[in-house]
Amino acid sequence: MRITALAGGVGGAKLAHGLAQLLPPEDLTVIVNTGDDFEHLGLYICPDLDTVCYTLAGLANPQTGWGRADETWNAMANLARLGGPDWFNLGDSDLATHIERTRRLKEGQTLSQVTRDFCAAWGVRHTVLPMSDQPVRTIVETEEGELPFQEYFVHRRCEPRVKGFRFEGAEVAEPAPGVREAVESADAIVICPSNPWVSIDPILATLTPALSLKGRGNIVAVSPIIGGQTVKGPAAKLFAELGIEPSALAVAKHYRNLLTGFVMDAVDAELLDGVRGLNMRVCVTNTLMRSLDDRMQLAGEVLRFIGETI
Ligand code: GDP
Q1: Residue 12 Cα: closest atom of ligand 1
Q2: Which residue has a Cα nearest atom 3 of ligand 1?
Q3: Of 257, 300, 265, which is closest to residue 283 (Cα–Cα)?
Q4: Does the predicted model carry a pTM greater than 0.90?
Q5: N or C: which end of the chain has fewer CB atoms below 10 A?
Q6: Which pLDDT belongs to residue 211?
Q7: Atom 5 in ligand 1: residue holding the nearest Cα
Q8: Which regions of the chain are under pLDDT 50?
């Protein structure tokens, strides 16, 4: 079964990792959000792409879910001592990724070429694609004005109240090479349990002008909201500030025009009828991925659920 997964960072990477344990490399492509990429310290940084690649490579920090395992922070500490900007933490090993990526991009390589080479170097055998080689930038509309995503997310710690989002460049950016083929040849598209507003919506905004996902067979999303809460990150806060009660049902409603199926946690079983009422099939299971076994178990459930309708 060929699966194309759409993923942001931590939540998306965990399910992608589970799927990668069960599917051969030719059957899994992960399309990753680049809306929160940014330039910092002269370096081109791709937080979600790196989180997915490090996770698939077994190099990710198991505590944070992002960054590298066994990381050291000497460069950052020395940068701070010199008065440099230290609000975005970059570990020493991680810095090598950004330095080499920036060098290659300046030489004229595309982001997808660099990603492919890095995956080969890290031993990632499944295909990981940035959503686009052209810049798409998530802009957060807040009560204090518009903020670039990392400025809002890391520097301001998601404090300003959110009014909405826009994805600058999405209407003109082309899907990266391989994205169209991955979507068109997939038996199913899996929307990973990533933040709907700032991880998945930028991908959908970039892909849909060129590629219609709707009506393309199975499209299944896994809820990143469990029991009304996020496992990590600001998704629930964003829902609330946008006037929507955070819940798995709210996630299903958010994607309602796209989905054929929805996977939500057993603690949310009382929402089952509400989600079914949106005209989609529902799978209720354990969706909290604390261990590699959890990732594999959830990936297995998702594949079984998809398999029921292929
Ligand atoms: P970010 O770019 O690093 O914030 O990554 P994502 O958007 O991919 O992940 C953030 C979302 O993942 C949050 O809404 C979390 O609730 C969700 N998430 C993280 N871990 C898990 C998990 O184990 N299970 C589920 N269902 N969601 C998770």
Answers
A1: 8
A2: 9
A3: 265
A4: yes
A5: C
A6: 85
A7: 9
A8: none
